[in-house]
User: What shape does this take?
Amino acid sequence: MRVTIQPSEIKGTIQAPASKSSMQRGCAASLLFKGTTIIRNPGHSNDDNAALGVIRDLGAVVQKMDDGSLQITGGGVNPESGAVNCGESGLGIRMFTPIISLSNKRITINGEGSLVNRPMDFFDEVLPQLGVEINSREGKLPLHVKGPLQPKNITIDGSLSSQFLTGLLFGYAASNAKGVTITVNNLKSKPYIDLTLTVMKQFGWQVENRNYEAFHFTGTINPPSERIIYTVEGDWSGAAFLLVTGAIAGDITVMGLDVQSTQADRAVLQALQACGARMSIQPEQIEIGPAALKAFQFDATECPDLFPPLVALAAYCKGTTVIEGVTRLTHKESNRALTLQEEFGKMGVDIQLQDDLMLIKGGNGLKGAAVHSHHDHRIAMACAVAALKATGETVISEAQAVSKSYPDFYEHITALGAIVSKAGTKP
Assistant: This one.
């Protein structure tokens, strides 16, 4: 699908999308929880739907309620078949693999799109230490696992992604681990582990976090009841694009964001404040509008998903913006550092890469261009946001990539006044 964005006047109020980080963790917890979970404000992105498919395949019963909430009856891992598919979700494959390994049945774990070529060596190295048989395609999908996983003291590398640790935390908790510790070297994206631990605590699983270097299981399980109400947070990752839209293109109000959230991408507020955006942060809403924007410095090591919206922001900030954390971008849906450099280059933005730094020369105006998402949802959204104040129209190829995390994105910016037209469909 191709989407054409015209220069547009933006104004209005919009509800933030549901967080797929929160939704997918809620799905995993609901599967393992011995009781009933009501998930309110459920997401419906491709990644969210893939997570629901996985827990169904692992034995959960999922029912949609009249108010749109989901009722999930879990009780542990009881596979319906010998295969599951995580779609294109990096979190899904990394979180669910240790959970799937709780079963003593041989199960094939697969994915789609770019996920098929993303590295999964972590599991080849770690799962055998926990009594799990595993075979992979030289560290890539499909994975073939057979448990049951047996929690032990282990040391893991946390430098590639915190998502592997999230999966192990859930797997250990569901195994009633007691007296064992997961030691982690060089953990990245710590706020995402905060989110994992917050979800686990809500479902009754207690884990001692020892300065993000060790996670100790006391065996304490305190289920709050046989029925849990779990509300999916508004998504700071998707809302970052809406907030940047306001900063560069018009006065808007974004609803449904928790400013106390443990989501890593809440840090977008720091960048918006640093560049001089006109902003009012309130408990129930964030109001934001254009101002004279200046270049800023930002460390995105703990929140690499902010690179795309911040590049769109930096393109309109006078001076050279420096964003740290480029090494975190290699194994995303695309190599995002190179993709951002290439696609924003087409719009006249000079981006330089220096080791772990990205330098964006902004404030010189953008020109509409024919760009490509590289099948990456965040690249498509970044280009769309940047196009709103460019000179001339911008045409985004493979624009349907947004469905991975924010399927309503084009409808939402259209509701705010963006002039958007669509052509073609996904083959």
